[in-house]
């Protein structure tokens, strides 16, 4: 029997077991936890000391892991901002999701009317819903704005490019511009991340007496690599960009500490599930000196592990075992079904993921019932599949598939495709089945056109293109 089918059979049994054990009476309002979902932008798994950061420490995030559960096989939604956030919000994997690159043939796509989102699910269940930071799934005037996608309030950047400006003249609240007075000295008061973290904390305080969903989609350490004070790393013999980037990771850690302190001061930290993660792997600029993608190959925009491996930590006192480590394979696609189970509502039809609540609550050792599938259309079309410990990767739909054994080779250094034709066939079939064509993107058969058809100008993506981070 093929590995995939064997896995499905084994895990169907597990799911049957889990559905018996995890289903009970739906939680009452009193039992519904608050949810604080902290999503930082472009930080790699190697930026956090609990995951082995080589250049610095993130003590508040370490503490979150020490008091909660740390996932060691977690992935973001995709390898770049918009597509990753689309997976997170909709519960659709990258072969089904609307956004498969930051841009498309039809420009910047906005989430459509009628789209199920995590925020709508929670809003309909009576949660106060607030988002703070970068949205990226619909600009003002479109159907995709957060206040039409389940948020009572959203404060920050709607447009991804606007989010590059940390000393902006305005931020946006529910599609209305909020002027930011710039003193001109690029102080903390002028810095957008300060405002956004302050608003995050104010929302928590304002909603302390009712269930709330706080989506803290903070922008550091995404470029522009600017921060009023890079002093934690100011003395290092690094470039200013590297110092600023590292200081921006440290700022995220400080702000995690501020949120946790507020939850404790309000006496609600025991009824709050806090999740910390990042939307995609680190930018290529930070892999060499800082080791921001840890032991993994690749970086942001690549479907090698370095582009999609994510820190993922969850803390919920009395429910999640402190200091626990979980190796279940999970991606952002699982957030929507997990939250649905958590609040006792049915998983919306069409959702691709699985609830990892049994893992969070320590009820069972889950094994993922289906492979993990990713695709992305920038800088060129790529697909990847994680099937147990196998990792398949290819560009185009007909280019040769690379195969790695992640257990023996987490750095994807040794392509073992030739030795495993059966696994290759299986993964190719999964890639074909999970990829649904989208009218917004053209799917190439090959990364580069055949020689005879190739234009004089070679259609390659240079490292410079990758480093020139436009979104
Ligand atoms: Ca990002």
From TrEMBL:
Positions with biased composition (Basic residues): 448-459
All residue ranges annotated as the Sulfatase N-terminal domain in the record: 33-345
MF (Gene Ontology): arylsulfatase activity; metal ion binding
Annotated InterPro entries: Alkaline_phosphatase_core_sf, Sulfatase, Sulfatase_CS, Sulfatase_N
EC number(s) reported in the record: 3.1.6.1
Annotated region described as Disordered, given as residue ranges: 435-471
Position of the signal peptide: 1-24
Domain of life: Bacteria
Record keywords: Calcium, Hydrolase, Metal-binding, Signal
Record Gene3D superfamilies: 3.30.1120.10, Alkaline Phosphatase, subunit A
Family: Belongs to the sulfatase family.
PANTHER family: ARYLSULFATASE FAMILY MEMBER, ENDO-4-O-SULFATASE
Protein name, entry field: Arylsulfatase
Organism placement in taxonomy: Bacteria, Pseudomonadati, Planctomycetota, Planctomycetia, Pirellulales
Gene that produces this protein: atsA_61
